[in-house]
Amino acid sequence: MERTDLANLESLSLEQFRPYVTGIYTKYFWSKPGEEHYKLLAHFSTHYHGATFIDLGTSFGCSALALAYNPANRVISYDLEDKKEAAIDLPNVEFRVKNALEDGDQLLASPLILLDTYHDGVFEQEMYDFLSRNNYTGLLLLDDIHVNPAMQQFWSGVSHTKLDLTTWGHWSGTGLVVFDMASSTLLGSLLTPSAA
Ligand SMILES: C[S@@+](CC[C@H](N)C(=O)[O-])C[C@H]1O[C@@H](n2cnc3c(N)ncnc32)[C@H](O)[C@@H]1O
Asked: Whole domain around residue 38: which residue ranges?
């Protein structure tokens, strides 16, 4: 699949996922960058091939769908309970109902983890500490970094290289933590809008 360009994010279509989008997400899933982050997630997926992404916080499955945009990658999506309203039977998406920290090795092997759970700063800190302690080398993408004081405090305490992608992501704050600057080439192509 061709890599998408940050400058053309708005034109990226998620229509193929319409049969799986339910509830309040029928309103939000299609929103433009800066309002919702689903097009940014799909954009990220086009810059990988053969990767397994981790989606923390399935809910109705929309972030998993967006991350699955490029079928050359897999998505493993975790939640503590199954809240999905529609069966999502895509070959490159797997749902697990369990604490993701039980699958620590799987997390550490993934080049991209999306964290979008309860936004109380507690699980975010636990996950960030786990990844730091175990020398994680991938990217951690966080939803809602500005949504409340607990998340703002968590975000300001992140000591790795971090980028605020809210302009292209979710109005409530989208943050990217770069654990290893060896990913800087990938970051360049992901985040630099081309002049084309
Ligand atoms: C805001 S919703 C996720 C929305 C989803 N990522 C999307 O964009 O479609 C948060 C979800 O995280 C789940 N959750 C909370 N704590 C969790 C944890 N420790 N591990 C996995 N999921 C968790 C909740 O049950 C809830 O369904």
From this structure: 6-191
